[in-house]
TrEMBL record:
This is Uncharacterized protein.
Length: 660
């Protein structure tokens, strides 16, 4: 054993606070002091400052553990913080006695973690919310202080794992308007932050490296019998980027499986609702504390976790089918129970009070397909996610031809199509097996998603429902003409990206024809198409630099440029339209002519070399004016990259299917 010393717990507590304040001051001001001293040319070395700050934090943790043990020893001797004194009404405060403390043995942060785990286990085992909150009042402070402490984290989660995951169930506040009290929220937030930090830690080095979290602790989170309570740790825990992607992926699968199996994923009911107002309030509580939505949101924030789930070739399609569904809402309630004097002639009334839950689903679908283009494992999972989302949507369209998916899900599908536009264009002429592949089976080429034609058709049948949605997507395809021209020239595989884009345009037109939009609605489509075309064609989106034209990066650049920009909220078509309308009534008509994007593409590919004083080129971008018209007329029969300018224009017109 170590050295035993006599200590006053109160004085030890004060010393701990002072050490903590010293560490906080060093951590906050240290970088600024270092920066200013460097600016003033100080010769003092601050190399050891970071080590001193870390050492100060270790001292705080050790002293906190000793303080906790000192109070425990005082209580073992019969001391109580409040006692009765002769001649005094009511209890009074008493100082703890001096105790003999093993300074070395109780200075370990792992010992503090073990004691906190024991306190948590005892408090939650009682299943009394009030008693648990009181017993755990100091836990959040301890957990926050030890977030980066491996010894503490390992000891705490080894002892508290299974019960800690069920904390929300025990702390659930059964009275009052709030589901959890402020104290309960603080405890859940601290537990979530601690679990997230521990999930990313590893112990050992090299081949001996392994996750810090024990298998039992991970299983409690991902295979436990209380998925709702586990979901609350994700809800109140930190941003998804602070979690281990594998743990979040496993938790996501668990939640989706639990939902499909009809398990409890909602907060516990507070008895039978007596009025429709009470029933509606419970629907809102179900939406606010939806465990599945909470986990999907964290996995979407992480990104990699979402791709782990949907990008698995073996199981990704199953989970994509669970997500691409019209069931993302609370169950609602039967209004007939509150209409005792009224009998509906048609029988039972349909459920009312449903709350839409599709927002985190849409975010998850977007995250699953958003890896950077390339040859990495993450890019492969992203491509497989696209394949599975398309297949799941096509299945839904086939099984539910009259049902429209929730708006947030559809917007995510449109995002998928915009981000993977070249994959979809390549897939139009493909009617074999669907899957993720690398072009030509070359490991230097990026991963792409290939789907059969009938799957793409079913996908777009659900994704695009409104005329303006068709217009936006057509505008995006049309604006890629310049990139498709450049890509056709520069791609060493001799692919014709213009023809692929034309095939996709034909598919979109065929899907749109099945909707039978009225003539007035077609005007909405054309307006949306024109706005997107103006915003993207005039903004230079998707340009190709080809710094290494025939190197391994060429295909990745082509695939990225053809899909830029993805259809999302950052594309503000309105501002671009207003800016150009002021003085471009005549040139606006020229912008929509196919000659401009064709020349732009030839320029991007280095096939066209305009004169240095050409007024129709500014900063590498083609500006439509009279001089450009003259140049096109003079060079109509000039050959660029193996074809005449007229041939390029004809191919582009076919691809765009522009309505003259």
């Amino acid at each position: 054993m170590g050295e035993f010393v006599g200590v006053d717990p109160e004085n030890l507590k004060e010393l701990t606070k002072r050490l903590e304040h010293l560490h906080d001051l060093l951590a906050r001001q240290g970088p600024a002091i270092h920066q200013k001293m460097q600016k003033w040319g100080s010769e003092l070395s601050f190399a050891s400052l970071s080590r001193l700050i870390a050492a100060a934090l270790d001292d705080v943790r050790d002293m906190d553990a000793r303080t906790t043990r000192a109070y425990e020893l005082a209580r073992e001797q019969g001391w109580s913080v409040m006692t009765r004194a002769p001649g005094v009404l009511g209890p009074v405060f008493t100082r703890p006695p001096v105790v003999r403390l093993d300074w070395e043995a109780t200075g370990w942060s792992g010992d503090q973690g073990r004691r906190d785990a024991e306190a948590l286990t005892a408090a939650l085992a009682a299943k009394d919310p009030e008693a648990a909150r009181a017993a755990l009042s100091t836990l959040p402070e301890h957990l926050e202080r030890h977030l980066a402490d491996k010894d503490y984290q390992a000891a705490f989660w080894a002892g508290a794992g299974p019960l800690a995951v069920q904390a929300a169930r025990t702390l659930y506040n059964r009275t009052g308007p709030a589901l959890f009290s402020a104290e309960s929220v603080g405890i859940l937030r601290a537990l979530g932050a601690s679990l997230a930090a521990a999930s990313r830690m590893r112990v050992g080095t090299g081949k001996e490296s392994r996750p810090l979290l024990s298998t039992a602790a991970r299983d409690a989170m991902t295979r436990g019998s209380d998925p709702w309570s586990a979901g609350m740790l994700a809800k109140y825990g930190p941003d998804g980027r602070s979690w281990d992607p594998r743990l979040l992926a496993d938790l996501t699968r668990t939640m989706l499986d639990a939902r499909a199996a009809g398990k409890t994923i909602w907060p516990p009911a507070r008895g039978e609702a007596e009025t429709d107002t009470g029933a509606t309030r419970h629907q809102r509580l179900m939406a606010e504390f939806d465990a599945v939505g909470a986990v999907l949101r964290r996995a979407a924030e992480n990104g990699v976790a979402a791709r782990h789930v949907l990008g698995d070739p073996a199981t990704g399609l199953r989970y994509a089918r669970m997500l691409v569904s019209d069931s993302w809402h609370t169950p609602g309630y039967d209004p007939g129970r509150f209409l005792s004097s009224y009998v509906h002639p048609g029988g039972a009334l349909p459920p009312v009070g449903r709350v839409d839950l599709s927002t985190p689903v849409g975010a998850f679908l977007k995250a699953a397909v958003s890896a950077e283009r390339g040859t990495s494992a993450d890019a492969e999972e992203s491509a497989w996610s696209v394949v599975h989302i398309v297949q799941a949507t096509a299945d839904f369209a086939r099984l539910h031809p009259q049902t429209v998916l929730p708006n947030q899900v559809r917007q995510a599908l449109i995002y998928v199509a915009g981000r993977h536009l070249p994959d979809f264009a390549q897939s139009v002429n493909h009617d074999f097996a669907s899957g993720a592949l690398q072009q030509g089976n070359k490991p230097s080429n990026p991963w792409v998603a290939i789907n059969k034609l009938d799957e793409l058709e079913g996908f777009f049948m659900q994704a695009l429902q409104k005329p303006e949605e068709f217009g936006v997507f057509k505008g995006l395809m049309a604006s890629r003409v310049s990139t498709a021209v450049a890509a056709t020239i520069q791609d060493p595989s001799d692919r014709n990206y213009l023809r692929e884009m034309g095939g996709l345009f034909g598919l979109i037109q065929r899907v749109e024809n099945t909707h039978h939009f009225e003539k007035e609605l077609r005007a909405d489509e054309e307006a949306a198409r024109d706005q997107v075309l103006l915003a993207t064609a005039s903004g230079g989106f998707g340009a190709l630099s080809f710094s290494n034209p025939f190197g391994p990066g060429t295909m990745a650049e082509i695939m990225t440029a053809l899909a830029t920009p993805a259809l999302n909220d950052t594309l503000d078509t309105g501002h671009a339209l207003k800016a150009l309308k002021a003085d471009m009534d005549a040139s606006r008509r020229q912008v929509f002519q196919v000659e401009v994007p064709v020349v732009q593409g030839l320029l991007d590919a280095g096939a066209v070399h305009p004169p240095p004083d050409a007024p129709w080129v500014r900063g590498g971008r083609v500006i439509p004016d009279a001089a450009l018209v003259d140049w096109i007329s003079l060079h109509a029969d000039t050959r660029y990259a193996g074809k005449t300018l007229t041939d390029w224009i004809t191919d582009a017109q076919t691809a765009m299917r522009m309505q003259q």
